[in-house]
Design a protein that fits this description.
Layout lengths: L9 E5 L10 E5 L2 H36 L3 E2 L1 E12 L4 E6 L4 E6 L13 E3 L2 H43 L5 H40 L2 E2 L6 E5 L6 E2 L4 E7 L3 E7 L1 H8 L5 E5 L2 E15 L4 E8 L11 E16 L3 E4 L2 E6 L5 E3 L2 E5 L2 E4 L10 E3 L9
Antiparallel strand pairs: 1-2, 3-22, 4-16, 5-11, 6-7, 6-10, 7-8, 9-11, 12-15, 13-14, 13-16, 14-15, 16-21, 17-18, 18-19, 18-22, 20-21
Helix pairs in contact: 2-3
């Protein structure tokens, strides 16, 4: 037996009769689980539709950005490969400040300088001069000590004569003689002290000269030339050896003004190849002096991080982009019909013929004209020139 549905579980649905009126209401059973399922399906469809609308909007907005790239004429650049060879960072010629005989040479050509002196010159005569100076200084100290004692005695004598003069037991002449002897002793003591200072100054000069008998050099530098052997006589100012600093390698170049500008436009540290090994390079210096014979400027590159054998003559190469004659036109802006290449100006749509001089990557090198200058915007071509 079917039981009637409760009103709380019923939904009143108006039924339209044939006359368009609603004379009665029909009661139909209400199922909550069906309503939840229908709502879930409706919400899922709505979410999908909303995501689709967002995606289409993004594509419509982004479409013009990716559909057409701005095509601009730029100055023509050519890729230039430069090759050079390394040399030392600095080079110094060693000379002697004193004369004598070389009794020891501690390094030979190719050796790296260590803690020992490079060359030792016989110090016999300078050592004797220092000993003589010391004896003279000791003698002077003895004379000064004796003179101080004499000054002290004469000062006491003067005081006694001065006391006797007050009692009229000593004449004025004796007082003057005692005072004069004291003054002479004091002046002689001052002269001895001055002579001692001169001996000290002479001693300092001799010690400095003695230090020159051992010739030291920069630690870590390399001997590249040796001009003296042990037992050979050395004269003051005579070149003894040549030492070089290879801790940093430099590569000299003689470049045009455009090439120097290309190096200036590079970052502070750029790439290069040294003896088939990639290295980082920086500009050591640019000499502003212009060589009228070669019409070039001198530039040196410095290499510090090279892990190989540091020496001269290593082959180095790098590449720069130099401004050359002509302009660069994007390849996909050039129309090529019947062997007559042209480009369309973006501002007016006018077709302008171009004279192609060469290629550079995705661009063509063309002759500059009044209508085609760097900064001119172009329209993309229907049948662009293909790479050859």
């Amino acid at each position: 037996m079917n039981r009637p549905h409760r009103m709380s579980l019923q939904r009143i649905i108006p039924l339209k009769n044939q006359g368009g009126r609603f004379p009665c209401h029909a009661l139909r059973p209400f199922h909550p689980e069906r309503l939840s399922a229908q709502r879930g399906i409706t919400m899922t469809c709505f979410s999908c539709a909303r995501q689709l609308i967002i995606i289409l909007s993004v594509l419509l907005l982004a479409g013009p950005v990716y559909a057409e790239k701005d095509l601009v004429v730029s100055p023509a650049l050519k890729d230039l490969a430069l090759t050079g060879y390394t040399r030392c960072f600095r080079s110094v010629t060693l000379t002697s400040e004193v004369a004598g005989k070389a009794i020891r040479v501690n390094y030979k050509t190719g050796d790296a300088i260590g803690d020992n002196p490079f060359i030792e010159i016989d110090p016999t005569f300078i050592n004797l001069s220092i000993k003589n100076n010391k004896l003279q200084t000791d003698q002077m100290d003895s004379r000064i000590k004796s003179m101080k004692s004499n000054v002290h005695f004469l000062n006491k004598s003067l005081q006694r004569v001065k006391a006797l003069r007050k009692t009229q037991n000593a004449t004025e002449v004796k007082y003057d003689e005692a005072a004069n002897l004291l003054n002479e002793a004091v002046h002689e003591l001052e002269a001895l002290k001055l002579e001692k200072n001169m001996l000290k100054l002479s001693h300092d000069r001799l010690m400095e000269e003695q230090a020159r008998y051992k010739i030291f050099c920069f630690k870590g530098w390399v001997v590249t030339a040796l001009h003296v052997e042990e037992g050979e006589s050395v004269q003051a100012g005579m070149p003894l050896a040549e030492v070089s600093d290879y801790s940093t390698l430099v590569v000299p170049f003689s470049l045009s003004g455009e090439e120097v500008k290309a190096f200036r436009d590079l970052p502070p540290s750029f790439d290069g190849i040294l003896d088939s090994i990639p290295v980082k390079v920086s500009i050591h210096f640019i000499n502003p002096k212009f060589d009228e014979n070669t019409r070039k400027l001198q530039l040196e590159l410095a290499i510090k991080d090279y892990a190989g054998d540091r020496r001269g003559g290593l082959k180095f190469s790098t590449r720069i982009k130099v401004i050359t004659d002509g302009i660069l036109i994007p390849r996909n802006a050039v129309r090529n019909r019947f062997g007559n290449p042209k480009v369309a100006l973006k501002a007016t749509g006018e077709l302008v013929p171009v004279m192609i001089l060469g290629e550079s990557g995705d661009s063509l090198i063309a002759a500059e004209t009044d209508k085609l200058i760097p900064g001119t915007h172009l329209l993309p071509a229907d049948n662009p020139v293909s790479g050859g």
